[in-house]
Structures are given as C-alpha cells and as structure tokens.
Write a structure and sequence with these properties.
The protein is 68% helix and 3% strand. It is mainly α and 134 residues long. Strands 1-2 form a two-stranded antiparallel ribbon.
Length: 134
C-alpha cells in the first residue's frame, strides 16, 4: 500500500467519524449542535459518509485513484471551507443557496470551517507534494 493509499484510508476513518458524530451519545447538545459549533443534519452526515466511501474505494483501488481522491476531495473541501469563512455558508451542503451570506462572528466562522479547510488542505498537500503515483 502506497503513501497515497494510506492517507486516503486515514481520510476514510476521519470522515466516517464525522458522519457518526450525531449518533454518539453526549457529542451533541439538545439542539443537535456538536462541540458547541456544528449543527450537522442528515444531509451533512450523508455527505461525510459518501466522502468516506469514496476515500475507502480510492485507497483500495490503486495509488493513482488515491492520489486523485486526495486532489479532488482536497480542492472541494478546502474551497468549501474558504467560502464558509468568507460568506458564513459553504456550498457542499448547499448552505450558500439555502442561507446565503450570513453575518456571523469571524471567530465562529473560523471554528465552523476549520475542519474543511484543514482536511482539504492536508489532502491537497499530500496529493501535490508526495509525488506522482506509481
């Protein structure tokens, strides 16, 4: 298993964890907010689960598929986080279409979008700088 495949497998685990947050007792409050920041709904859970399945499939198929996953996933999630940071709404969950621009405190926007910026950035860096797949 190549480094790209191992990283894609790691993303599978992380994304599966994100998809399961609403179903772990004590992680969300009475309003369904995880960690006091994220209000994840079934659409978010589905997005994270689909991304996790994509990561697993890419890791199992080949190094090239894993690198492609890292580049595409990274670009999509990083851009979503950057958009959320700028506008208060992302596009992967259709928030920009549903809620439009939101006037939220900048500190909150950082906390709410850091996971997508971080995961997307890590995936992009791994896909670009770890070299071409074999």
């Amino acid at each position: 298993m190549t480094v790209h495949q191992k990283i894609a497998l790691g993303f599978f685990v992380v994304l599966l964890g994100a998809a399961s947050l609403n179903y772990i007792p004590g992680v969300t409050d009475a309003e369904g907010v995880a960690f006091g920041v994220f209000a994840l709904d079934i659409f978010d859970d589905s997005l994270h689960l689909a991304s996790a399945i994509w990561a697993l499939a890419a890791a199992l198929i080949s190094s090239r598929a894993a690198r492609t996953f890292l580049l595409l996933f990274g670009a999509l999630y990083f851009a979503d986080g950057a958009m959320g940071l700028a506008t208060g709404s992302g596009y992967l969950d259709f928030g920009i279409f549903t809620y439009g621009f939101q006037d939220l405190p900048f500190g909150f926007k950082i906390l709410a979008n850091l996971p997508h910026i971080g995961l997307g950035g890590i995936a992009l860096l791994a896909g670009v700088f770890l070299g071409k797949s074999a």
